């Protein structure tokens, strides 16, 4: 989707590092994709 495309583009261009507040195994799907940026980027 366009939102995901923008997220990955910003992550790569900005050399951003994200931190997971959980155990680095968050559920990433359409409903929960904005909850954890770290797990989305992995």
From TrEMBL:
Gene Ontology BP terms: cellular response to corticotropin-releasing hormone stimulus
Entry keyword annotation includes Transmembrane helix: no
PROSITE patterns reported in the protein's UniProt record: NUCLEAR_REC_DBD_2 (PS51030)
InterPro entries: Znf_hrmn_rcpt, Znf_NHR/GATA
GO molecular function, one term: DNA-binding transcription factor activity, RNA polymerase II-specific
Pfam families according to UniProt: zf-C4 (PF00105)
Nuclear receptor domain: residues covered: 1-42
A single cellular component GO annotation: transcription regulator complex
SMART domains: ZnF_C4 (SM00399)
Key words, A-Z: DNA-binding, Metal-binding, Nucleus, Receptor, Transcription, Transcription regulation, Zinc, Zinc-finger
Cross-referenced PANTHER family: NUCLEAR HORMONE RECEPTOR (PTHR24085), NUCLEAR HORMONE RECEPTOR HR38-RELATED (PTHR24085:SF4)
Protein name: TR4
Organism from which the protein derives: Schistosoma mansoni
């Amino acid at each position: 989707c366009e939102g995901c495309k923008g997220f990955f583009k910003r992550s790569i261009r900005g050399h951003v590092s994200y931190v997971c507040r959980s155990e680095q195994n968050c559920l990433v799907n359409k409903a929960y994709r904005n909850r954890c940026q770290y797990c989305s980027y992995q």
